[in-house]
Design brief:
The strands form two sheets. Strands 1, 2, 3, 4 and 5 form a five-stranded antiparallel β-sheet that branches. Strand 2 and strand 3 form a beta hairpin. The protein is of the alpha+beta class. Helix content is 41%, strand content 24%. The radius of gyration is 24 Å and the shape is elongated.
């Protein structure tokens, strides 16, 4: 089949085949391209959509981007069940197999070093949301008898608001410290934008943890024990994922 080469990940050779019905980006099943003892997992994609100019335009199309990202992630998830993949950035495309091999050779040392560090490990995501937030109103609930009473009520509202965020920050910091001490590595990401994530509440912790696959059950139990620990705090756990946050992918 002709077309450009879309690269999902680089990994070590693996003997277990991927699911036979697995469909990749643009509907083309992924295949393994072996080179220098490493494997690039690739699909053929049409030039009309994935050449430099059309790809740049497509990346501004939310529907197209969502569909492509879902297919990309599906291949990464399938790889994670059979090996330790080093995911590449969404939209990593080369002209042909020769271009992919050249990329592997140029980054071979980094790939091998990173794969060694990530071998047998997965990424878990933990988010904490503050679900209850004091409601700001133009006027206090009870009519103030005087200007002094009004100012006193406003101060009380402000103090309540500050105390709530202090508790949320303290809870999140303590949880992050405990999970980081258990995990081999951790990353703090910027809080999610609620307009984009559609999640309720304010995101006060957005972190990733690198955990040996063999210790994942214990990690999950640690997170589960914190759920419901503090009223108004919602703890969400996602994973296991390929170690995107720890791959050091820059191109």
């Amino acid at each position: 089949m002709t077309g450009l080469r879309y690269v999902y990940a680089v990994c070590r050779p693996f003997g277990t085949p991927l699911q036979s019905q697995l469909s990749g980006v643009a509907g083309d099943p992924p295949r393994a391209l072996n080179h220098h003892g490493l494997v690039a997992v690739v699909s053929h994609v049409p030039e009309r959509d994935f050449a430099e100019e059309p790809l740049r335009a497509h990346l501004e199309d939310l529907d197209w981007l969502t569909e492509t990202a879902r297919a990309h992630q599906g291949v990464i998830d399938a790889l994670t069940t059979v090996t330790t993949p080093l995911p590449l950035r969404l939209g990593t495309v080369f002209r042909d197999d020769s271009g992919v091999r050249t990329m592997i050779e140029a980054r071979e040392e980094d790939f091998r070093r990173t794969l060694e560090r990530l071998e047998g490990r997965v990424e878990w995501g933990v988010k904490v949301y503050a679900e209850s937030e004091p409601q700001e109103t133009p006027r206090p609930a009870q009519k103030a008898a005087s200007g002094r009473d009004y100012l006193r009520q406003r101060r009380m509202q402000t103090r309540s608001h500050e105390e709530m965020w202090q508790k949320a920050e303290s809870f999140s910091n303590r949880l992050h410290e405990e999970l980081s001490a258990f995990a081999e590595d951790s990353r703090l990401h910027p809080p999610q934008n609620p307009a984009l994530s559609k999640a309720t509440g304010r995101n006060v912790l957005n972190a990733a943890y690198l955990v040996p696959r063999a210790h994942s059950e214990e990690f999950v139990e640690m997170v589960d024990r914190t759920k419901g620990e503090m009223p108004g705090m919602r703890v969400e756990l996602t994973g296991p994922w390929a170690a995107y946050s720890f791959a050091g992918e820059a191109t």
